[in-house]
Amino acid sequence: MDPVLSFTNLSKVYGPVFTLYLGRKPTVVLHGYEAVKEALVDHGDAFSGRGSLPVFERATNGMGIAFSNGNIWKDTRRFTLMTLRNLGMGKRSTENHVQEEAQCLVEELRKTNGSPCDPTFILGSAPCNVISSIIFQNRFDYKDQDFLNLMEKLNEMIKVLSTRWLQVCNTFPALIDYFPGTHNIFLKNFAIIKNYILEKIKEHEESLDVTIPRDFIDYFLIKGKQTKVQEEIERVIGRHRSPGMQDRNHMPYTDAVIHEVQRFIHLAPIGLPHKVTCDIKFRNYFIPKGTTVIASLSSVLHDNKEFPNPEKFDPGHFLDENGNFKKSNYFMPFSAGKRICAGEGLARMQLFLFVTSILQNFNLKPLVHPKDIDPTPVVNGFTSKPPAFQLCFIPV
After folding, report:
1. Whole-number Å distance between alpha carbons of 337 and 335
2. What are phi and psi of 135, to 5 degrees?
3. Which of 257, 80, 218, 64 is nearest to 138 (CA)?
4. Which ranges constitute the DSSP H helices of the chain?
5. The 3-state secondary structure of 2-58, one letter per residue
6. Which CDD domains does the entry link to (predicted)?
7. Which residues make Cβ contacts (< 8 Å) with residue 356, sequence separation at least 6?
8. Closest CA to 135 of 204, 68, 225
9. Closest Cα partner for 20 from 37, 40, 1, 43?
10. How far is residue 108's CA from residue 115's CA, in Å, rounded to a whole number?
């Protein structure tokens, strides 16, 4: 059955808006410019949901930009459009990607030496490579085995999409679990591609620098670290009461982020000077009474034995393998010993309550591309502070 031809024939009898029953489910068909424009443009909000496609829902679990609904779709679409803009969509940088791939395409076609060939694979590979350069940072060589495998799986999935059996499965979803058929090829190939992307995400996690996002996956991971705090706030506190200190024990990731901020910026890198109150032999050195002593707190907070990759912002420095908060004796932003800051308790209370209250109510948006933000603290005498910056506080 050709659905396009069928819809055209039915519209001649029933007009530009008519109802069909696909299985037991009524489906309204819009035919022609006027009906389509009036629904999808003039009443865009009302018609913005995604209809049920059970095979796709089984593959995606209702996630992603194409087959999700509600807030998941809105948030995913907003993030996708923002990230594509950050990566240069519509700007010269994206044009450069396409131009480079166009030259690779020309060179690949040149290799045919004017002989007859089926250009389907080469022509399909070029746009896939542009997308790959955005998502994975790098393009593939047209002979790369991983690339060949991915293209083979994608092409098989496209063929399955055009089969009548897939239309039957979407109409009668009970068949998906109990009958063999091409829908299983679609689900199997989707899982293979998904696992490949998950491996790439894992590789990106290991080399991620939140200050210099390289591609779409990096932005996705960074977004996850921003929203993970808000998800914890939503789960533990919700929107209808103010955060309290009793919440901190149930919010290990948020606590880890706040600790990592203090470690990363090392607000008082050398602290205030100390003085020995008596003659003392210290590590085989004699230090006379009254001698000034400076303790480099920064050297403790950036010790790579305790904090792997200390120059990178990573809340994982304060989380164990199970995601529980992990205390560290090296955490000395308030100094240590008899002269530890008397206001430590108050400061830690303010940090937790201020941060959670802000992220409970706002999404934070910088004015410039994140890679152009340099978070390196500016050391000024006894203190360090972040460089000047501006943010937009978008109500949630």
Report:
1. 7
2. -80, -45
3. 218
4. 3-14, 33-37, 54-60, 70-86, 92-110, 120-135, 145-161, 164-171, 175-178, 182-207, 216-236, 252-265, 297-301, 344-361
5. CHHHHHHHHHHHHCCEEEEEECCEEEEEECCHHHHHHHHHHCCCCCCCCCCCHHHHH
6. CYP2C-like
7. 233, 237, 243, 247, 251, 254
8. 204
9. 1
10. 13
pLDDT tens digits for 313-364?
889 999 999 999 999 999 999 888 888 888 788 888 988 998 999 988 888 8
359 token code pair: 């992220």
Cβ neighbour number for residue 316 with a 10 Å cutoff: 18
Given a contact cutoff of 8 angstroms between Cβ atoms, the answer to whether 378 and 257 are in contact is: no
Q: How far is CA 87 from the centre of its chain?
A: 13
Three-class secondary structure of residue 169 per DSSP: helix
Q: How many CB atoms lie within 10 A of CB 109?
A: 15
**Residue in the block written with tokens 């901190």:** 248
Nearest Cα to Cα of residue 88 among 211, 220, 213: 213
The pairing of strands 378-380 and 383-385 is antiparallel
Phi, psi of 29 (to 5 degrees): -110, 130
**Structure tokens that stand for 134 in this block:** 């955005």
Tens digit of each residue's pLDDT (9 = 90 or more) over 66-121: 778 888 888 888 888 888 887 777 666 777 778 888 888 888 888 888 888 888 78
Place of tokens 């050195």: 285
pLDDT at 347: 87
Beta partners for 365? 392
Q: Where are the beta strands (DSSP E) in 235-373?
A: 274-275, 280-282, 285-287, 292-293, 362-366
C-alpha to C-alpha distance for 257 and 210, rounded to whole angstroms: 13
Residue 379: strand, helix, or coil: strand
Residue 272: exposure state from Cβ atoms within 10 A (0-12, 13-18, ≥19): exposed
pLDDT digits (tens, 9 = 90+) for 255-300: 999 999 999 888 888 777 888 889 988 888 899 998 888 888 889 9
Most confident of 52-66, 108-122, 136-150, 239-253: 239-253
Strands 378-380 and 285-287: unpaired
Q: Are 296 and 270 in contact (CB under 8 A)?
A: yes
> How many other C-beta atoms are found inside a 10 Å radius of the C-beta of residue 203?
12
Please state the three-class secondary structure of 94-108 as a single string.
Answer: HHHHHHHHHHHHHHH
Give this prediction's pTM. 0.60
